[in-house]
Amino acid sequence: MFKPLPDSRSGCVTLTIDGQSLSVFEGQSVAAAVLAAGLASCRTTVVSGSPRLPYCMMGLCFDCLMEIDGVPNCQACLVEVREGMVVRRQQGRRGLQP
Amino acid sequence: MTDLYDLAVVGAGPAGLAAATTGAEQGLRTVVIDEQASPGGQIYRGLERSPLAEPGFLGPDYQRGAVLLERFRAQDVEIIDRSSVWQVTPECEVAVTREDRVRFLRARRVLIATGAQERPCPIPGWTLPGVMAAGAGQILMKAAALVPDGRVVLAGAGPLLWLVAWQYVRAGAHVVAMLETVTNTARRAALRHLPRAIGAPDYLIKGIELMRTVRRAGVRHVTTVTGLRALGDENVKAVAYCNGGTWRELTCDLLLLHQGVVPNLQITRALGCAHDWDQAQLCWRPRLDAWGNSSLPGIAVAGDGGGIVGAIAAEKRGELAGLEAAHRLGTLSAAKRDRLAKPLQAEIRRHTRIRPFLDALYRPAAVFRSPPDETIVCRCEEVTAGEVRHLADLGCQGPNQTKAFSRCGMGPCQGRMCSLTVSEVLAEALSRPVEEVGAYRVRPPIKPVTLGALAAADLEEFASDDHGHEQPP
Prior knowledge:
- The complex is a heterodimer.
- Chain A is about 5% helix and about 35% strand.
- Chain A is mainly β.
- Chain A has one helix at about 30-35; strands at about 1-5, 10-15, 20-25, 45, 50, 65-70, 70-75, 85-90, 90.
- Chain B is of the alpha/beta class.
- Helices cover about 35% and strands about 25% of the residues of chain B.
- The chains are: A mainly beta, B alpha/beta.
- The interface between A and B is large, with 43 and 52 residues.
- Strand 1 of chain A pairs antiparallel with strand 9 of chain B, so a sheet runs across the interface.
């Protein structure tokens, strides 16, 4: 859905989303990385289970909630990608953490 | 009681940066808390660490922020970045989360400069992947060097929609169409404000130039669109639009929606500040005096969060708020404050001359504020406009009641994406003015904070860390 413009940055970091390894530009948010990678969704909703992607990219809509490094319900548009980051899509409702 | 900070500013957009700079210049110990990795707000997003090899295509208004940022960087202001404020108390305590760690700050005065958010654009299908806010498209350019890959349609109304179209065209994106929802009534109403707008012609000239470039690039411009639907199953495949009573479809890979911007009121609402309904801008705004003081002592608001004025006027409002903070905290006399404020007030008058024209022209049509029954209004809990209307029929008198009955507005976004819509749907259904129907009660925490982070928050450390701060009784 999105493609990169000529980029001034050189560095890339590698993270995994649901086990899939992705090389992404440093400095961008996890939500931007999800869109750049062309993923179909970042979560499914708690009520109907329908797929969602980020909507506002500025911390308002909470549609980009993802599990990042074990912490569920992170706003992926407000978290910068980091080397070795483990990201998971949220399917439906969150359970309680053990 | 000695305070840790004189002035705590929430938000590092034009107003927050200008207020913090002015406050520091006047001798105030100032801190700025911001959600992003670098200051600038959404308008100057990523300016100091742009990923773009050639950011020039974004236009001169974006580059303008460099002057403000340079002035800010010259002052000794602490900036707490990548941090969410989840509570501000009437005692001027600010609760902040940074990387899942909680911190409490105390200030003698708090300035809320959280700016604007896009007005919700509820249309059927707007929750589909591939439908986004126009501002999101712009943020992806500024912060991640991303442009749409495939056919993009922009729909709605407002200056930002044209700006994004212009930037996309310059970046080489394939903008298929601009579906403008401006009504004929709005066009006629705007004409009355044109003479005043011509008093500051640069905004009009800029707007005309944007539209000309976009049209010349071959973007189809459909005017007076009276209905919009996003179509698709797993993601958006097309947009349907109604024009002259006929529905047509356009295939697209990305649909960007926009209906103007409104103040982001999450903090002032949670604080219990007084708010008023603004019938010209069709939104709530906190009740402020000429210096930005809210109805609560020590709590002020500057910038678009106090009513939409645009980036330059927001910056000047920030400076005014900085002067007022210095005056209230005893480093600036009233006479000197007034003298320094004079040129700022003149600038604000000049830069807001266009506002009544823009407010009238881009006044969102009723069908986009109180959408058809099948439209999801609460994106989090997936509650439709029809369900809200049904609850009004059953006797619900306001948004807090429909929330209790349906969970509408009770999801993680805490009503940010549906508050205005639900208030307007109920006002229409109950045939009562919006100001009587009211808005959601907002409660802290206004941003997610984990129990673990709360439990780990060291209040003792906070007390000993605070550089001679005396414990309150």
